[in-house]
Amino acid sequence: MEPDNPLLDLYILRQAGTGRPKICFVPTASSDAQGYIDRFYDAFQRLECTPSHLSLIQPPTVDLEDFILDKDIIYVGGGNTKSMLAVWKERSVDRYLKTAWENGVILSGLSAGSICWFEEGVTDSIPGDLTRLEGLGLLSGSHCPHYDGEADRRPSYHRLIQSGQIGGGIAADDGAALHYVDGVFHRAVSSRPEAKAYEVRAMEGHVVETVIPTVYLGEAAGL
Questions:
Q1: Which of the residues 30, 142, 143, 146 is marked catalytic?
Q2: Banded pLDDT at 8 (limits 50, 70, 90)
Q3: Record keywords: Ubl conjugation included (predicted)?
Q4: Most buried among 20, 42, 98, 106, by the most CB within 10 A?
């Protein structure tokens, strides 16, 4: 999302704990859009890592599981979350990603690539009002990305929680990232000074939103 601001990309790479981590972009949610793949390489070829991508339209190998498990980091792009999960299930990629997670591979992503790891999330995959979508369930609770970036995200998340259509969970502004370790929330970080994360839940018939302390990564970088 931020071609000229690599703070979150660098943060993800550091989590691998190795000098030149192998990071694989999964662009399924955008139907493997070539422009999106090109932007990934433009961003990560500048950094200390070995980038690759996994296209399911033109797979790099028959053995997708081995291809995924060979990576240090999986980075899932944005797009249509519902379609992405359906394609993953058909090709068993959902199972391979779970195995990768259990083996210590770092799973990351933005938008659809953020929603997918949770039990449920707020999606615009279906035309009309934003709706609930079931995710892979690797992380508990619900999730709403683009909390400040799209006008209908916050009110839709509140509406779904208050009506009981979705459980409480965690929301993130554009530029904010949620870091989990072994399935447990660790901390929130951001590439923008004002970007925040929030705990959002129902309490006594009302929706309560609590700001989560968020570390601006630019401070450590002297920005």
A1: 146
A2: very high
A3: no
A4: 106
